Amino acid sequence: MTRGFVTLALLSILMQPDSGHAQLCQEWDAVKTEGKIDRKSVPEASGLTYSRRFAGEIFWINDSGNKAELIQSQADGSGWRKILVEGIKFRDSEALTAADCADGEPCLIVGDIGDNGRKRETGHLVVIREKDINGGKVQPLHAVKFKYPDGAQDVEAMAALPNGDLILIAKRFTLMGAVPAEVYSLSKADWQTPSEVPVTAKKLGELPMPQWFPDKAFLATAVTDAAVNPKRGVLGILTYNDLIEIPLMKLNDLAQAKTWKEGRDYAKAPIQSLAQQETLTYLPKDGRVIWSSEWFSPETPIFSMTCRKAQP
Description:
Blueprint: H1 3-14, E1 25-28, E2 32-38, E3 45-50, E4 57-62, E5 69-74, E6 81-85, E7 95-100, E8 106-112, E9 123-129, E10 137-138, E11 142-147, E12 155-160, E13 166-170, E14 173-174, E15 177-178, E16 181-186, H2 188-192, E17 195-200, E18 202-207, H3 209-212, E19 223-229, E20 234-239, E21 243-247, E22 267-269, E23 277-282, E24 289-293, E25 299-305, E26 307-310
Parallel strand pairs: 6-10, 11-17
Antiparallel strand pairs: 1-26, 2-25, 3-4, 4-5, 5-6, 7-8, 8-9, 9-11, 12-13, 13-16, 14-15, 16-18, 19-20, 20-21, 21-22, 23-24, 24-25
């Protein structure tokens, strides 16, 4: 076995989610108003992630009907600037996450994945290197087309795992009531490689949202965003009313999700909900969670909360 092979094997192990140290939060600090974002800059916030290049800064993406732009700001919404994504027209941009590209550079991944009517044949990912942002514009590194193994899905939640894979969670509800949310994944090779030929996402299973929230109306359980807290090894899942966290290792056990126990296998966080809340991220420095809305005018509040005591 060569030294290079051993090195690559060790790096592969280190890049996996830290499932052995997943920590759900037992006690949260009170919700704080982190700041606010001017709707002139973010009129319809549908995606949010932290910068891997600029400490303390975050990026936003607007929903469909707006220009193909990123908005960069401080975590409290101040100092914002618009960044035009050149040569791209978003159809229904709903998600934004951050991960390293194949060359190790910090990248942003825009999920043009919304599909209210569940009619799109493919979803689109637009990959942008942060270092390529030049003033008020950026040229994407590449784009990727993908499809789901079981037909079109309306998806607003996308998150990058520590190993570089992407998790996508369907936004599912019917007029008859809440339904489980399908969970899919794309490998880091899938999104790191430009492709006009659609790659196929892998279905991992379903989240039993009606079982976890039996007292909530059907729309309240619809999943609107997701983000990873690598420090605690959990996936945060935002709905129109709630935030739940599950250990990353549980993504390999979704077949048993209906038997999961609250407080052991997943946990609900006591957030202050916002109408039309569709944006979520965890800040890497202290792990605090940030969320906001696409609805308020003329300024949209940004809320935050910090885990005071995690499971040992």
